[in-house]
């Protein structure tokens, strides 16, 4: 009388003398099995003869059954949990600048991001500013102020002898002769 196959192995045909290892992407979790089981979505198994599948690690995903590997989240996406079938796109005001990320990063003051799934923040253009983190757009400098540089978190007051009479100015205007 033959001994039942151990976990990780199975015997597909009666009367067969030897047990067969579960192939990669599949597993056998009981003794005496006659077939192997597919790894479900969110799990994978790279090795032969295993009794279980592995959950996709945080920062990765497995979208198909019988997978032999987990896939890293790409730029602009992240996954904080294990055993997942997809990655999450970075939300507006946030970015992901690494593969296999487990969290998104907020745009710092001076930068913004209006779209989902982006890799980097957009610096505020001259004539504008971004005061808060996780911004989705830049604000124009108000009347009386200006900003000559990219990526700034505030505007500068027009200095004595100059003026800024419209919003969004990148340079103040000099007062005309005879005015101050």
Kindly describe this structure.
This protein is mainly beta and 180 residues long. It is 0% helix and 22% strand. It has no helices and 20 strands. It has strands at 9-10, 20-21, 26-27, 37-38, 43-44, 54-55, 60-61, 71-72, 77-78, 88-89, 94-95, 105-106, 111-112, 122-123, 128-129, 139-140, 145-146, 156-157, 162-163, 173-174. The strands form ten sheets. A two-stranded antiparallel sheet has the order 1-2.
Offer a few descriptive terms.
two-stranded antiparallel ribbon, 180 residues, mainly beta, 20 strands
Q: How much helical structure, as a percent, in the residues?
A: under 10%
Q: How many extended strands?
A: 20
Q: Indicate the structural class.
A: mainly beta
Q: Characterize the largest beta sheet: strand count, sense, and whether it forms a barrel.
A: 2 strands, antiparallel
Shape: rod-shaped
C-alpha-based Rg, rounded: 30 Å
Task: Give the strand order, joined by hyphens, for the main sheet.
Answer: 1-2
Which assembly state applies to the chains in this document? single chain
Average pLDDT reading: 94
| Measured distance between first and last alpha carbons | 108 Å
Beta percentage is: 15-25%
pLDDT under 50 segments (min length 5)? none
* Elements, N to C (H/E): EEEEEEEEEEEEEEEEEEEE
User: Treating each run of at least 4 consecutive H or I residues as one helix, how many helices?
Assistant: 0
Brief summary:
The chain is mainly beta and 180 residues long.
What's the layout of helices and strands?
Blueprint: E1 9-10, E2 20-21, E3 26-27, E4 37-38, E5 43-44, E6 54-55, E7 60-61, E8 71-72, E9 77-78, E10 88-89, E11 94-95, E12 105-106, E13 111-112, E14 122-123, E15 128-129, E16 139-140, E17 145-146, E18 156-157, E19 162-163, E20 173-174
Antiparallel strand pairs: 1-2, 3-4, 5-6, 7-8, 9-10, 11-12, 13-14, 15-16, 17-18, 19-20
């Amino acid at each position: 009388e033959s001994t039942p196959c151990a976990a990780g192995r199975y015997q597909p045909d009666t009367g067969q003398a030897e047990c067969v290892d579960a192939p990669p992407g599949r597993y056998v979790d009981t003794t005496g099995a006659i077939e192997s089981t597919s790894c479900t979505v969110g799990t994978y198994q790279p090795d032969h003869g295993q009794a279980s599948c592995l959950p996709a690690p945080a920062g990765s995903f497995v979208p198909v059954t019988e997978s032999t590997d987990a896939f890293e989240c790409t730029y602009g996406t992240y996954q904080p949990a294990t055993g997942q079938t997809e990655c999450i796109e970075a939300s507006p005001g946030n970015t992901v600048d690494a593969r296999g990320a487990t969290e998104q990063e907020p745009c710092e003051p001076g930068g913004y991001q209006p779209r989902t799934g982006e890799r980097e923040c957009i610096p505020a253009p001259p004539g504008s500013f971004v005061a808060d983190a996780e911004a989705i757009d830049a604000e124009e400098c108000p009347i009386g102020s200006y900003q000559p540089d990219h990526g700034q978190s505030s505007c500068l007051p027009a200095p004595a002898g100059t003026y800024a009479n419209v919003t969004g100015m990148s340079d103040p205007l000099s007062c005309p002769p005879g005015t101050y």
